Amino acid sequence: MTKTWFITGAARGLGAEVARAALAAGDNVVATARDENSVRKALGDNSDRTLFLSLDVIDAEAPRRAVDAAVARFGRIDVLVNNAGYGHLGLFEEASEEDIERQFETNVFGLMRVTRAVLPVMRQQKSGHIINLSSIGGKVAFDLCTLYGASKFAVEGFSVNLAKDVASFGINVTVVSPGYFRTDFLAPSSVRFAGNRIADYDQVRDAVEAAYRSHSHQQLGDPTRFGPAIVKMAGAEKPPVHFLVGSDAIEFARNELAARSAEIDQWADLSASTDHQDEAARAIFAAGCPSRPFARLHTHINQKKE
Which residues are tagged catalytic? Predict the structure, then answer.
């Protein structure tokens, strides 16, 4: 079946590559960006399977208008790719209140707005796949990454919990965590650095900023391989909730998981010492933690549908 993809931030970088791969697979693509002309120029206006739309995710009303236009053109939305976002790098203390608000307004709240606009369509269809672009910086801490990392950790948390909300409607959710890809992410046209400089931080800040700039367009990941990987993952009968992209992302994540596991073990006795000691509480826990009854409910609903 031909799918219809709705992609935000499709004018360049990884979003554009996903759009190209979906078109190459024979699917329909609703390609959005803040400037419709930029995405039209990037992808080429030569296919009746493409709809170009202007969409600024920080505009509260824009996602609904874009979704209505997409459904009017193609009748459905099968895959939502929330890709729009940017990186704000720098030390937290040097970031302004405006820096913080803008980072979350785009990377988190904008993503949520688009998702909220698409969900009624997917619920009615009883199918769909929401793909949220996070980052390996949403799983692992990096230097000068406090705001960007916090926004991507938020995307991770939103995605895995949303997956619970919508499972009974046949809607899948995948949070994608790319490693370093050779896009404009670290270029001046994309990345932002905090500007309220504090002298105490000069040595570490200047060294790390220089390292990031020198790494721009030298990253390991090949963007042209990213799009086909996403299209293939989206075609799986049971797509993953977490999808790492890039061998560097795999290594970072494995090292982080190993370190967390070791830390859990180190502090396990003290952590467990806070439990109630009555047998009733232990019996309830053994029967299933609070989330498990909801998992059983989703299973029951799906079985009834079948």
Answer: 134, 148, 152
